[in-house]
Amino acid sequence: MSNLEIDQLNSSFTPVEEIPKIHHDLHKAFSGGVTKKLEWRTHQLKQLSYLLQENEMAFEEALAHDLGRPKTESHIGELVGVRHQVHNALSNLKSWLKPQNVKTDLTWLIARPKTYREPKGLVLIIGTWNYPVALTINPLIGAIAGGNAVMLKLSEQSPAVANLLTVLIPRYLDSKHICVINGTIPQTTTLLGLHFDHIFFTGSINVGRIIAKAAAETLTPVTLELGGKSPAIVFDDADFAVTGRRLIWAKVMNAGQTCVAPDHLLVSKESEPKLIESLKQAIRDFYPPAPAPNGRQSSRIVNASQLERLKGLLRDTSGEVVATGLGKAEEELGFPLTIVRKVTSEDALMRDEIFGPILPILTYDSVQDVFPPIARAEPLALYVFTSDDRNFELVREQTKSGQLVRNDLLIQFAIPGLPFGGVGKSVFCGLNSHFFCRATNFYPSSTGFRELSWPLLLPHLHLRACFGQPFPLGRCAFQLALPSLHYR
């Protein structure tokens, strides 16, 4: 099925009364031991690879349907990374399953102590809508590699992708051990009332709190990948032309609906005019006065409710709109990229994560003033634009964040081996925050494997991903990787 017609997919919501039986059957199926076998895990991962490869065009169409996203952006920004994770799991699964010798006292060496990574059991994965393929399939890869049975709750906010996965997963994967659940609040509430061996959720902080409370009632370990307001600090010595282009590029990607998109900018009062001019120039470059006949391809806001929320933020802000870019028409759920200056920490734009193409600018007298609020907020990502290594080290030492990136944005997803995950309020792992990271796009299969199998070690540590590069390197490196995404 290389090009499935979206209109032909009419998957209905899962009846609430059927969910407990599905849950019981999956628990019973897991107890049979089939999922523990290497052959089962390998076969399911291969089938998942075929699912992605043979239906790539259908996924691109579904993402365009749900998010208005250009196919090239979906292909490079989401689908390629998922396929890489499947292949990574297949290549490394045998080594992941090998028992690990324990370094211990000489007295106990004769006992040959080892640790084995065992499946947890029945895992609930609750997907989200902004990257509905990657943020659903990547945890599934880890769950399968870990030898678990899976209930997969798809996001109703991305119906085309949910319908497509509902059709494809039973065709390619073992339906006795992997089941799809569709629905809204009633279905999710029913699921959270059941006992699972692990819950894996990606989404907002508010929903994360609800899931954590429900999981506590059944003493279920959870992994919550949440969001937050990810700031970008622009030092006076930054290359403003490059900085402006990268900020605009990152903010228009998926219409700003990315958990690590720059949420707001922090710049000195002296450098604010230079930053604003660089942003305006980038907008002029990305949105020329004479667009293509069919308009510039760009993602849209996911639904009318989110669109109204963004419009309300602009109505309530006390800031000054200084620049806007073109986008899809409002009737197509479009929202123009909007730069806002004279924003304070008490402004409406600073209350919650913006999660859209609005970029507020806050100024400071001394950069030292911005460090305590950032450390308290514990953002998922923190971006720093500077030409001085000492500035970068200063930020690293005095702030706390899931990731720290210098002179670039978003590309921490694309660096193999680099941990990716939140800290504090931006992530919650009931047992293992040390291993909650992402090596390439979204959740790496190695991380999902560790998170959804035993043993779980070092819960008191956080791996902070740091990526720093000089401006000249960044001008060419990622542009070669994503030439079609207007990265300069």
TrEMBL record:
Disulfide bond listed as a keyword: no
Keywords: Oxidoreductase
Keyword Ribosomal protein found: no
GO biological process, any: aldehyde metabolic process
Domain Aldehyde dehydrogenase residue range list: 27-428
A GO CC annotation given for this chain: cytoplasm
GO molecular function: aldehyde dehydrogenase (NAD+) activity
Active site: 225, 259
Top-level division of the source organism's lineage: Eukaryota
Family membership noted in the UniProt record: Belongs to the aldehyde dehydrogenase family.
Alphabetized PANTHER family for the sequence: ALDEHYDE DEHYDROGENASE, ALDEHYDE DEHYDROGENASE TYPE III, ISOFORM Q
Protein name (record): Aldehyde dehydrogenase
